[in-house]
C-alpha cells in the first residue's frame, strides 16, 4: 500500500499568500482609483455632485479645473479651485492654484476611512466685501439669523466648537504658500489688499 506524504501547515506559505493578497489588492484598488479620478467625465460628475448636494443650498459654487491622483505617494492634487457666492455680486471668493492632499494609507485601511497625512495649499486667494456701514458682507452660510429668542441678532460662529470638530480629522502637517487676502473693493474706504 502506498503512503501519501503528510501535508503540513506551513506558516511561511500562509504568510506569503496573505502578503501576496495584500499587495495585489493594494495595486488593484489604487489602479482603479487612479483611472477613475483621472477621467474628465468622473471629475465633472464629482464637482457637479458637490455643487448640487452641498454648495448650492448655501448659495455657493465650486469650480475645479482638474484632479490628479498619484498612487505611488498616495496623494490627490486638485488644480485651480474656486469657490464663490452666487446670487450677489462677488461678495465672497476663494481661489487656490493647487491643493495637494497626502493620505496615510496604513491608517486609512485600519480605520476604514481616509486619514490625511499632509495638506498643501498653493497660492490661495481670499476676497470679501464690506457693507456701506463698514462691516464685512459675510456670505449667507456664515451670516444666518438666530431663530431662537432674538431674530435680530446675527449668528456668531462658535469657534471652540468648530475647532473641536476639525482638530480630530486635521492632518499632522498643513502648509499654505503664497496667501493673498483682499478686503473690500478698490476705491472703497476700508479697502485692503
Task: Describe the 3D structure.
The protein is of the alpha/beta class and about 190 residues long. The protein is about 30% helix and about 30% strand. Strands 1, 2, 3, 4, 5, 6 and 7 form a 7-stranded mixed sheet that branches. The model is unreliable at about 145-150 (pLDDT under 50).
Radius of gyration of CA atoms, rounded to a whole number: 25 Å
Q: Using DSSP, what is the number of strands?
A: 7
Task: Report strand %.
Answer: 25-35%
The overall pLDDT average reads 77
Q: Structural class, please?
A: alpha/beta
Can you describe this structure in just a few lines?
30% of the residues lie in helices and 31% in strands.
Key phrases:
193 residues, alpha/beta, 4 helices, 30% helix
Please describe the topology of this protein.
Layout: H1 11-37, H2 40-55, E1 60-70, E2 75-85, E3 92-103, H3 105-111, E4 116-130, E5 136-137, H4 159-166, E6 173-177, E7 180-183
Parallel strand pairs: 4-6, 4-7
Antiparallel strand pairs: 1-2, 2-3, 3-4, 4-5
Amino acid at each position: 500500500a502506498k503512503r501519501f506524504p503528510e501535508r503540513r501547515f506551513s506558516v511561511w506559505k500562509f504568510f506569503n499568500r496573505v502578503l501576496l493578497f495584500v499587495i495585489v489588492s493594494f495595486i488593484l484598488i489604487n489602479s482603479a482609483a487612479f483611472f477613475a479620478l483621472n477621467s474628465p467625465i468622473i471629475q465633472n460628475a464629482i464637482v457637479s455632485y458637490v455643487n448640487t448636494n452641498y454648495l448650492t443650498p448655501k448659495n455657493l459654487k465650486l469650480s475645479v479645473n482638474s484632479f490628479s491622483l498619484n498612487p505611488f505617494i498616495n496623494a490627490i492634487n486638485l488644480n485651480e479651485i474656486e469657490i464663490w457666492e452666487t446670487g450677489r455680486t462677488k461678495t465672497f471668493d476663494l481661489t487656490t492654484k493647487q491643493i495637494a492632499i497626502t493620505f496615510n494609507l496604513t491608517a486609512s485601511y485600519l480605520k476604514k476611512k481616509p486619514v490625511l497625512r499632509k495638506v498643501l495649499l498653493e497660492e490661495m486667494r481670499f476676497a470679501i466685501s464690506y457693507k456701506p456701514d463698514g462691516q464685512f458682507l459675510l456670505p449667507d452660510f456664515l451670516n444666518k439669523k438666530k431663530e431662537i429668542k432674538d431674530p435680530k441678532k446675527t449668528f456668531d460662529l462658535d469657534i471652540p466648537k468648530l475647532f473641536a470638530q476639525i482638530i480630530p480629522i486635521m492632518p499632522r502637517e498643513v502648509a499654505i504658500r503664497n496667501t493673498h487676502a483682499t478686503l473690500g473693493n478698490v476705491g472703497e474706504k476700508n479697502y485692503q489688499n
